[in-house]
Amino acid sequence: MPKQDGYDVTVFKVASGADAEASLKAIQNGERKDVEEVINGWKALTDITAVVPSYVYDDANKVALFKELDASYIVKVREIKKENDTIYPSVTIPVATEQKGNEIVTALKHKTLYSFDDILVSDSLRRVPAKDPKTDAILNGAYFKYASVGQ
């Protein structure tokens, strides 16, 4: 299957009988009114058009209303990546003030938050030599998976 453009998108289904234009304005203002979230996250165009067949990306209009036969849908695109771009996961951190947001961004840019070390885990069984508990001598040079010495 060929690679496709990726969209960081949220698709909302407008409740039946609700005013779709009012719901669109609410989404544009960061609110939710008479909508149900159907899709959220990084999706290919085919995933979006499976729900909203008439969807067409418009760079000038990141939040758009699409009226289908069964319902109306609002598509909100946060970001788009071309097929040869790398998609990095993102984290959203809600903050109360712009100052607090700037402090978090500064901390993220200037500090190491996590460091990862490679850990080798052997996938083969380890065998230990069976030893006499009193003399600590290897018993006849034999190796056992489990060893027990009776007295």
Describe the overall structure.
With 151 residues, the chain is an alpha+beta fold. It has a domain at 6-81. It is built from three helices and six strands. The chain has helices at 20-28, 45-51, 98-110; strands at residues 6-14, 35-44, 63-67, 72-81, 128-131, 138-144. Strands 2-1-4-3 form a four-stranded antiparallel beta sheet. Strands 5-6 form a two-stranded antiparallel sheet. Strand 5 (128-131) and strand 6 form a beta hairpin. The longest helix is centred in the C-terminal third of the chain and has 13 residues, at 98-110. The radius of gyration is 29 Å and the shape is elongated. It starts with 5 loop residues before the first strand and ends in a 7-residue tail after the last strand. The model has no long low-confidence stretch (mean pLDDT 79).
